[in-house]
Each structure stands twice: as C-alpha cells, then as structure tokens.
Amino acid sequence: MEKTIGLTAEEKRMFKGTFRRLQTLAEDSFQADDFTKIRHLLEGIADSDMFQRNSFGLHPLLFDMQTSVILAEEIGLNRASLLAVMLHKYVQKDPKSLTAIKDLFGNDVMNIIHGLNKVNEIYGKTPVVETENFRDLILSFAEDMRVIFIIIASRVNLMRQIKDKGTDEERQKVAQEASVLYAPLAHKLGLYLIKRELEDLSLKYLQPDVYYLIKEKLSQTRKSRDLYISNFIKPVEEKLRAAGLKFHIKGRTKSIHSIWQKMQKQKCQFEGIYDLFAIRVILDSELEKEKQDCWQVFSIVTDMYRPNPKRLRDWLSVPKSNGYESLHITVMGPEGKWVEVQIRTERMDEVAERGLAAHWRYKGVKDSGAKLEEWLKDVRSALENQSTSDEQLINQFKVDLYSDEVFVFTPKGDLFKLQKGATVLDFAFHIHTNVGCKCTGGLVNGKNVPIYTRLQSGDQVEILTSNKQLPKRDWLNFAVTTKARNKIRQSLHEQEAKNVALAKEDLERKFRHHKIEPDEGTMMRMVKKLGYKQMNDFYKAISDGVLDSAYIVEKYKEQLDRQTNPTLYSTENRSADGFVRNVTDNQLEKSADVLVIDNSVKGVEYSLAKCCNPIYGDDVFGFVTVNRGIKIHRTNCPNAERLKERMSYRVIRAQWAGKGSSQYAVSLHVVGNDDIGIVNNLTSIINKEKNITLRGISIQSSEDGLFSGTLTVMIDDNKQIEQLIKKLQTVKGIKNISR
After folding, report:
1. Spatial distance between the Cα atoms of 70 and 57, rounded to a whole number of angstroms
2. How far apart are the C-alpha atoms of 90 and 310, rounded to whole Å?
C-alpha cells in the first residue's frame, strides 16, 4: 500500500469542489454550524500523513467526501449518515475522538461511525472481503440499515474510479464482490439504478469483451429502436391527453448485464433478444389518486394493444418489501413485437430509482425501512447457525435477496409476505418455530394439502399441527426460506444429539449387565472393524436400529479375545470364494401368505419398507430390524447396498408366495410440457384401467414451460404398473414417468 503525505494540488481542488457540492445538496438537513465544524476538523488533517491510500492510490478523505455526495444526490440520505461518512476515518485513526464527535454532532452520528469502523476492520488493508470474514461483514450490515446504504455508495464510488487504476486482478476481485454482494443488496433496498450500474461495471471488469460487444451492438441499433419506441408511444400519448391525465413517457433500454443474462439463459446471440427496452408511463398524480390513475392508464394501453395476461405484475395493490410500486404489463406492439409497459407515478418512480430512502421525503407515506427488519432477522438467524458454511451462507444470502415474493393470508385475513416458491412448511415456520416443527400439513383455500405444497399469491392458508410431529431431514428438500431451513437443521441436530446420547446410554447399560468395563482402545478397534470412522456415526447406527446393542457386546467380547488369545485366531482364514449355501426355491403357489421369509418360514410378521415401497412381483429381500420386526425392501432399493454390505448377517431371503387380496400404493413421478389438458389426459387413462385407482395427484408448474408432479395409484402388482407407465408415456407432451 502506497503512503502519501496529504493531498496533491489536484486532489485539494477536487476536495474543495466536492465539499461545496455537498453543502448545496445537504443544506436543508444540516444544522447551521455543521459545515463550519466539519471543515475545521478535516482541514486540520487533510495535509497530514496520518492516512494511507488504498491499493488503487485513492486518498481516503477525498474518497469519503465523494461517497457522501453519492449518498446525498443518488440515495437521499441526510445529516447523520453524511457526517458519519466524512468523519469515520478520522475516528478510526484517533478512537479517543469518538467522544468529541458525539459532543459535536450527537449520538446518531457516533453510532453510524461505530458501525462503519466495524466494517473497515473486516476489510483491513484490502478492498475485497475474504470468504471467512463474510459472516462478520453481514452481521455488521444487519446492525444498522444506514451502514448498508453507505457501504453500497462507497462501492459504487470505488467501481467508478478504478478503470485505469490498480492491476487487472485487483479490479476483478472488486468487481466480483460487487456482483456477488453489493448488487444484490442494492436490489433488496430498491436502488435499481445503482444495482444496474454495479452489475454493468462488474461485467465490464470481469468480461470486457462481452461488455463492449453488447455496448457496440446497442449503439448500432439505437436509431431503429428509438424509431420503434416513438411509433409505439405516439398514439398512447394522444389517448392519455384526451383522458385529461398529466404524464410523461420514456423508453428504457435494458442494462448490458441483463441483456447478457438473457443471452446466456436463451442461449442466443444479441440479435435473438427482442425485448431490449421497456416503455415507462410516469404520472403526475395526487397521493390519494395514484392507484386510480395508474389503472386508468392500464385500461387505455390494453385497449390499444393486445395484452399478455400471464405477464401482468401488480405491485400497486401489494408493493414489494423494498417499497417498489408499479404496474407492469406486456402487450403486442407494432410489427408483432412484445413490449413491456410500466405504469407508475412520479413518487413511485423516484422510489424505484433511488430506493427506500426516497420514501422519507414524502408525507403520508410510511417509512419502508421497517420492511427490511424481517429479512435482517433471517440474516441474524443464519449467522447464529454455526453449522452453516460460509459458502452456504453466501448462496442463501444471494437467493433470498433476488427472490420474488408471494402474498398469502391467514384465515383471519392477516397478510404475510414470503419469497417465491415458499411452501406450506415455510409459512408454518414464518408464523413461529414451534408451529413449523409440529406442522403436518395445511388447509389452502379450504383444501387439505401436504406440507411441501407451494403457495401462490392470494392463497388463504391455515396450518395443521400435531404434538407428535418432529422435523425430518427430507424437509430440507422443499423448504426454501432461510428461517425454515435454519430451524430444521437446528432441530435435526438436536434430535440426533439426543438419540446418540440415548444409544450411548443403552450400550453402557448392556455392558454393565454383562459386568464388562469397556476399554477405549479395544472399543475403537471394534468400531473400525464394523466400518465406522467416527464414534458419533457408530452411536447413530445404534439409534437408527442398524446395529443392535447385544450384537455389539458379543463383537466386543470377540475383539477382546483376539487381543488376549491371538493364537486362537492365527490359523489361515478360509476364502469365501466357492462357498455355497444350499438354497431350495419353493415353487410359487397361491397361498394365504403373500411372502415366504427365509425360504420356508411362513406366518412371520413383516412390513413393507417405505423407502422403496415394494409391490407384488418385485424382487425383494428381508432385513431384520431391532425393534420393528422384518422390513421388506426391493433389491434395487437405494438403501439395499448399504444394508447388505454393513449388516449382511441381518439380511434374509424373501419371495412372493401368493397374491394377496390387498392392493399397493405406488407413486409415479411425472415430468412434461405445461400444456392445457395434459393432466386430464393422464387421469383419463388411469380411470379407464381396470383394478387401478387414482389415490392422489400433486402437480407444480415451473417457469421453463414444464410441470412436474406425483401420481399416487392403487395397483395389484409390478406388471400392472409397468403396463400403466407405458400407456401414460404415449400422452403427447410427457417427458418422463418413473416409479
């Protein structure tokens, strides 16, 4: 890092000009003598050598002054935040001065400085945060929302100035962090212009060839694009004027970064992207007439151009959590091109451009900063979960920030906001952790649904619970919110720790019963011989019923004998090669018993394993559990290999000896094109089949034009299900059907 004494002559001129600019921008919020006090403090240290430049050669005092201008001009923060930015480096060098700052400017300024200096400690001497410090950085953000605004403005300032400074590697590191962390933060806070700039600059430094190619293409097509926008807007303007509305209309080209994302998603070149712009209608309306005027414009536009009803986005009735309000509709414009039209008022547009801070300048509008408190609670919850890795935390952080939202109601009419894709289980945890842990399902719009059902905006949801319910590991496969996933992991960890303790206690009791005081070394050797590397895994196998305590005691005695009398075990072991167990296959006959266990034993109590759901005709085997009798598994069960490898002594032969009168429930996983009527075609085929009953159906659509779901049918045997799968695969649009 380069050390420089004071500011250069050019930097001094920039410093004075920036300070005057800030005076103009912030004079309404500053107190009468604030600027005199701050000038006195800063001028006294500007020429000193107490400050070091960063790796890009930027002087911290000038840099912070420029950041303050961005905060005032582009975000709209006021006195306390601006003073804190200008003074926090001064306090960082002289911590004792914090008390003097408090006396001069108040508690609020001091608290923000404290938050900023915590962030600076994490960054240290490098402008890029290391992965292991990410957790501490997010925690610092979560303490005061103004710190988030300030740090974003600082990063925008840095990204604007490093084009010709530093090395390529340094620029790319800063750009990568801006893309991963600061652009999502700006999005969450509604700072769309800043988010767009951060993404574009990140692409510029990370993939310059791509950035300049798209920029050149946009420049080449600008004339034709402007002409099309003009032709689209002209008749709309005439209709709006005739309706007596005050407005202005502008066309907005998509950012270079969003165009690049579309090219990647659609796997096409620039020429294949057709929706390069959006039309924005901005109304000059009184606060109480805003919604009425917006819907009037919507009606006029959709009367002139055919709308796509699937592309309507109503953020007027229920705004986004970051305060964003607008009506979006995509219509078919001239030349058969789809055009997105955004309808909003001047107030809504300023909030959309400048984020939550813009709310604070409008009377009668509630401070939307409080809307982020719930998100910040989830961040803190994730930080408390020490089992979450830094990489998992970063990925979850990005997902939560960029996710869309769904709005659901309780039976009493209370409105809750969840991220898109949230399930009944997520909603249960959103209400309360105890409700989530005991959730068994829900009533959605009066219909009984399972816990993995995805919620849609407008759903009315009632959670069903049971005191006997406990969280299960497969819940993590469909829970999407940070709170739900953290609480599930925490509960599973607690359950596992409790079960391991009980298993250990049970084994110790067995040893005491046999008057054995187990030796730690002998115990470890036995555990390794059984195939377990960690004692926790060993005790978990006992708690899961995979290992029996009595069997372990016998194995321990055997291991002890080996150590005490090694000569007894020194003879050459016979190879298993060529060993044959004489087995006679009983001819399958109709019988009251559906299964014959271990070749000749009938009348044994058994149950079908839920992990693979065997049915008549499947190749099966039996597994003797500790407390739950004999479990019947399919030979291709996901758990078969593990059971046979680790506990072959408990695996027994089983075969079907007759066809019972009962049917079997079989779940079919189906994937296909989300076309009208395709589900009806599937159910129609099932209903026509003899001795087959449709017991349940669960279907979810995705944004890629596909649906996936589960069909549960009652069936007689495996041949019947194979024939049914073949018939269902003939339905047009079906991609895959499997058991």
Report:
1. 20
2. 54
CATH number 3.30.70.260 given to 664-738: yes
Chain center to CA of 656: 46
Residue ranges per structural domain of the chain: 9-166, 216-370, 491-565, 595-656, 664-738
For the record, the structure tokens of 180 come out as: 């991963």
State whether CATH 3.30.460.10 applies to domain 216-370: yes
Q: What 3 state SS string does 441-475 have?
A: EEEECCEEECCCCECCCCCEEEEEECCCCCCCHHH
3-state per-residue secondary structure call for 617-658 = CCCEEEEECCCCCEEEEECCCCCHHHHHHHCHHHEEEEEECC
Give the pair of three-digit tokens for residue 730.
């003939």
Q: d(Cα 641, Cα 635) in Å, to the nearest integer?
A: 9
User: Across the chain, which distance is largest between two alpha carbons, in Å?
Assistant: 107
Q: Are 48 and 96 in contact (CB under 8 A)?
A: no
How far separated are the first and last CA of the chain, in Å rounded?
Answer: 62
Q: Which fold has domain 9-166?
A: Hypothetical protein af1432 (1.10.3210)
Burial 479-511 (b: 16+ CB within 10 A, else e): bbbbbbbbbbbbbbeeebeeebeebbeebeebb
Q: Could you tell me the CA-to-CA distances from 376 to 129, 142, 185, 459 in Å, in that order?
A: 20, 6, 12, 25
Are 673 and 705 spatial neighbours (Cβ–Cβ below 8 Å)?
yes
Look up residue 619 and give its two tokens: 């190749």
Q: pLDDT tens for residues 581-614?
A: 333 333 333 334 467 775 555 556 778 887 788 8
Which of 23, 25, 45 lies closest to 34, judged by CA? 23
Q: 345-381, pLDDT tens digit by residue?
A: 999 988 887 765 555 444 444 444 444 455 555 555 5
DSSP 649-708: GGEEEEEE-S--S--EEEEEEEEEE--TTHHHHHHHHHHHSTT-EEEEEEEEE-TTSEEE
